[in-house]
Design goal:
This is Amino acid permease. GO terms for molecular function: transmembrane transporter activity. InterPro entries: AA/rel_permease1, APC_superfamily. It comes from Actinomadura harenae. The structure is a single chain. The chain is 74% helix and 0% strand. With 460 residues, the protein is an all-alpha fold. α5 packs across α6 and α13 crosses α14. The protein has a single domain, classed as Amino acid/polyamine transporter I.
């Protein structure tokens, strides 16, 4: 990969294993976890099965990303893998799609986050809500401009704080569950259809498993720590997701859960009858969770265009770093684009806009996921290992199966996103083609000019 321009500050390896793990966990576990049990309750208890399936597949995808980081421990993660395996155009589409995911998900996140802020501090009217949401986006940008170390500390602190109430409800709640609360296994329709529909809702909850790979050059010993952080962060999130959902299903009657706007608060009420502060406690956890996720995704949003710009596939301005080595142009651009989407959200129905953005980002994230998993599958088939050495037959078969499942899972992500999200996502992907053409034209023109200069120097 091409190096950054001479004299520019280079990435600093300031994220240790705890910081990288917290980045993964923080980006995966956002605000949505506090609504997920209610979101899938309408499908019946089969929603728990869907959560288990999605969790297992997400962990396998995390393992694949860890393997890929061992082979290519560079900033950009999925973009680097797609470009190295399939060429520049695939690499560009991967980077473009992932970049859309990073700032669009922040737009969706901050809309949901503001709803929990309202529980703690009522914001009357559209104006105050808008100030809080836009302000949160730019505070996340400022936190990242101060340096990756600061963003890493925020990720660790917010991850610990939001895990406390989630873990308490999830694991202590198991001792209070009642069998009758679970309701029917399949509430409506057939089992297969309900399983797929519930899984489609849950897919958005695991976006971010690749976060440590995108910032790999800022992680200490990335060949070792990115794999460990990615797998550990995803497994921890999956355990909290599944156990928490089981507890909430068993604590809150099915009919109540279907219409709940705060399922974890309802579960806390069931555990401690008469606890008047349950709503505020869970809202505070959601606000902390959302703030950490916002900072984490903002960090990631600048790394993907930076990696592509090093290869002249994104404009060179994304290479500019401040004195702390942070690619500030990417941060500012992400903040501006996320702010624009948030403003658009406030012109219509917020819940509908959030759902649309969530499904859109599920599709745009599936593009880099499928190319990354396919790259690992290709390399396994062509060189039988990351360094070209023959692998034991059992290990090789295991790696092939895991990578193939990851590919199939990401294709399932696209199917689950729905027609509208796929349609919009494809349009956004195609919107990047003129940018790719322009960047390749500039590169070709620069090569011609260099050749002409070389000929002139020879004549002189």
């Amino acid at each position: 990969m091409a190096d950054a321009a001479s004299g520019e500050p280079q990435p600093r390896r300031v994220l240790g294993l705890p910081g990288a793990t917290a980045l993964v966990m923080g980006n995966v576990i956002g605000v949505g976890v506090f609504q997920l049990p209610a979101a899938i309750a309408g499908y019946g208890t089969i929603g728990i099965v869907a959560f288990v399936v999605v969790s297992i597949c997400s962990v396998l995808l995390a393992v694949v990303f860890g393997w890929l980081a061992r082979r290519l421990p560079h900033t950009g993660g999925p973009y680097v893998y797609a470009r190295d395996a399939f060429g520049e155009l695939t690499g560009f589409l991967t980077a473009w799609s992932y970049w859309i995911t990073s700032w669009a998900s922040n737009g969706a996140l901050v809309v949901a986050w503001a709803g929990y802020v309202n529980v703690l501090v009522p914001l009357h009217g559209k104006g105050p809500n808008l100030v809080v949401t836009i302000g949160a986006l730019w505070l996340a940008v400022l936190a990242n401009l101060a340096g990756v170390r600061g963003a890493g500390v925020i990720a660790v602190v917010t991850t610990v704080l939001k895990f406390v109430p989630l873990v308490l409800v999830a694991f202590i709640g198991l001792f209070f569950i009642k069998k009758d609360n679970f309701g029917p296994f399949v509430a409506h329709g057939g089992a297969i259809g309900s399983l797929s529909a519930a899984a489609a809702v849950l897919m958005f909850s695991f976006l971010g498993v690749e976060s440590a790979t995108v910032a790999a050059e800022e992680v200490h010993d990335p060949r070792r720590n990115v794999l460990r952080a990615t797998v550990a962060g995803t497994v921890a999130a999956a355990v909290v997701y599944v156990v928490g959902t089981i507890s909430v299903f068993g604590l809150v009657p099915h009919g109540t859960l279907e219409h709940s706007t705060a399922p974890y608060a309802d579960a806390a009420h069931a555990m401690i009858p008469g606890w008047s502060g349950a709503d505020e406690t869970m809202a505070a956890a959601a606000v902390i969770s959302g703030a950490g996720t916002l900072v984490g995704w903002t960090l990631i949003s600048a790394r993907m265009p930076y990696a592509a710009a090093r290869d002249s596939l994104f404009p060179g301005m994304f290479l500019r770093r401040n004195r702390r080595g942070v690619p500030w142009i990417g941060l500012v651009a992400a903040g501006a684009l996320a702010s624009g989407i948030t403003l658009l959200n406030y012109t219509g129905g917020l819940q509908a806009a959030f759902t649309a953005l969530a499904l859109l980002t599920t599709f745009t994230a599936a593009v880099p996921y499928v190319f990354s998993a396919a790259a690992q599958l290709l390399w396994l088939l062509t060189d039988h290992g990351p360094v070209g050495r023959p692998e034991a037959a059992v290990r090789f078969a295991r790696d092939i199966v895991v990578s193939a499942i990851a590919v199939a899972f990401t294709i399932w992500l696209v199917a689950g996103a729905g027609y509208s999200a796929v349609y919009q996502g494809v349009l956004l992907l195609f919107a990047g083609i003129p940018v790719y053409v322009f960047m390749r034209w500039r590169a070709a023109r620069a090569a011609v000019l260099r050749g002409e200069d070389a000929e002139k120097s020879q004549i002189e």
